[in-house]
Amino acid sequence: MTSTADDPVTLMNTALEQLIPRAHQMGVEFVEMRPGFVRARVPFEGNGNHFGVVYAGVTFTVAEVLGGAIHFATFDVSTHYPLVKSLSIDFLAPGKGPLSASASLSEDEIARIKAAAAPGVKVPFVLEAEVVGEDGTLVARTRGDYQLRPFGR
Amino acid sequence: MTSTADDPVTLMNTALEQLIPRAHQMGVEFVEMRPGFVRARVPFEGNGNHFGVVYAGVTFTVAEVLGGAIHFATFDVSTHYPLVKSLSIDFLAPGKGPLSASASLSEDEIARIKAAAAPGVKVPFVLEAEVVGEDGTLVARTRGDYQLRPFGR
User: Fold this and answer.
1) Structural Rg of chain B based on CA atoms
2) Does the CB of B153 have a partner CB in chain A at under 8 Å?
3) A3 in a domain, yes or no?
4) Which of A21, B8, B52, B104 could be disulfide-bonded to B33 (CB atoms 3.0-4.6 Å)?
5) Residue B55 forms part of a structural domain
6) Quick one: average pLDDT of A30-45?
7) How far, in Å, CA of B67 to CA of B20, rounded?
8) Residue A1 domain flag
9) Considering its fold, how many domains does chain B have in total?
10) What mean pLDDT is predicted for residues B12-29?
């Protein structure tokens, strides 16, 4: 995969250090971003707990940041920003190494959100993510309620 | 409040750096621990995001660690350990400063869990937490499904 200074993955990884310093410090890194699909990963190092598995708050984070990333990859960042309203996470298996989280929005859902995103309107959308280990083990599943919000008032 | 080397708050704070280094790095600190009640806090510094509010993953963490703390304060740590199975979090207001999270278990619920905690038995319990700002604003509410698990097999 080639990467230039203005591709969305590079831009978003550069931005993350400023946007969410604590997530950057965990080593969260975006690896795939295109309209309707995003993927991020996080290393094991520094993120383990006393059971030798990735700490729950880190697993939460690598999945939660996908809301901002899919917004950046899919919608108009000059007029709207995303906000997480609630998130539920099911821990399904211990994360014993680096984790990868991915989430997608269907073309129909993207069209619905874009059509609804009039000035002054908050548009709710649901983003479900899967967090997997290097061997494909499903470590966690999340369901987040986000809002696409217009800038200003 | 006086604090000695062997009080549970001091012990738990000393342990956190080893147990969950990433939570310690966020500045998560336990401030009250007694059977059936625990409280932790986290500073704003280093934990903000680009909106100037505490990042969601930090709010999650200061609430989630209460599961381990209430176990330590309430149950037998020599025979059982706690495990989080799922957690849902509602973000109700922006956290614009340091946050404090608290959770409690009723005497009846403690009695139920202790009675059920036979060797070889996993005992599910629910822990609800509230995360508030310094002015008492309710910033987030969590509901976690935990298990009290016996060591060994």
Assistant:
1) 15
2) no
3) no
4) B8
5) yes
6) 98
7) 13
8) no
9) 1
10) 96
Indicate the pTM of the whole model: 0.94
Q: Determine the Cα angle at B87 with ends A87 and B28, to 5°.
A: 95
Q: Give B152's pLDDT tier (boundaries 50, 70, 90).
A: confident
> Residue B4 pLDDT more than 70?
no
CB A54 within 8 A of CB A48: yes
CATH code: domain of residue B54 = 3.10.129.10
Q: Is A45 on the interface with B (CB under 8 A)?
A: no
- Burial (CB count within 10 angstroms: exposed 0-12, middle 13-18, buried 19+), residue A1: exposed
> Predicted ipTM?
0.94
Interface check A89 vs B, CB under 8 A: yes
| The pLDDT value given to residue B40 | 98
Per the structure, the complete domain to which residue B66 belongs is given by 8-150
Q: Is A74 in a helix, a strand, or coil?
A: helix
Chosen from B45, B60, B138 to mutate, greatest number of chain A CBs within 10 A: B60
Instruction: Give the best residue of B14, B17, B18, B22 to mutate against chain A (max A CB count within 10 A).
Output: B22
Side chain identity, residue A151:
F
Task: List Cα–Cα distances, A107 to A125, B33, B145, in angstroms.
Answer: 13, 49, 34
Separation in Å, CA B140 to CA A118, A121, B75, B136: 28, 24, 26, 11
> Residues with Cβ < 8 Å from A72, sequence gap 6 or more?
A8, A12, A33
Q: What is the pLDDT of residues B121-150, one digit of tens each?
A: 999 999 999 999 999 999 999 999 999 999
